[in-house]
Amino acid sequence: MRTRYYNPSKLEVSFAKAFEDLSPQLEDKLDEGEQVVDIESVHNADNPMVIFKLKDKEGDLHEVVVQIIQRPDTIVK
Questions:
Q1: Distance of CA 55 to CAs 19, 41, 50, 67, Å?
Q2: Among 1, 16, 30, 53, who pairs with 48 as Cys (CB 3.0-4.6 Å)?
């Protein structure tokens, strides 16, 4: 399938949604005492994002941003 529109592409959006759905498995991989407290999704941005709000062992809050970027089809051969 040729991608005709990249801002965002359907593939980027579906991948971002899938990544968000995997959050329970991702949380299982964190160190003991660390947890995902919230997830914010921005699917309509040029490059969709999934923003994870995390709490560490000491109770401090952090954000980790996963941004999905699809390269143009002409690069992939």
A1: 19, 18, 16, 20
A2: 16
User: SS3 of 52, please?
Assistant: strand
Per-residue pLDDT tens over the stretch 43-70? 999 999 999 999 999 999 999 999 999 9
What is the H or E stretch that residue 70 is in?
Answer: none
For the record, the structure tokens of 60 come out as 């401090």
Show the tokens assigned to 55: 């709490």
CB 9, CB 33: distance < 8 Å:
no
As given in the structure block, the two tokens for residue 1 are 């399938």
What's the pLDDT at 16? 96
Q: What are phi and psi of 53, to 5 degrees?
A: -100, 120
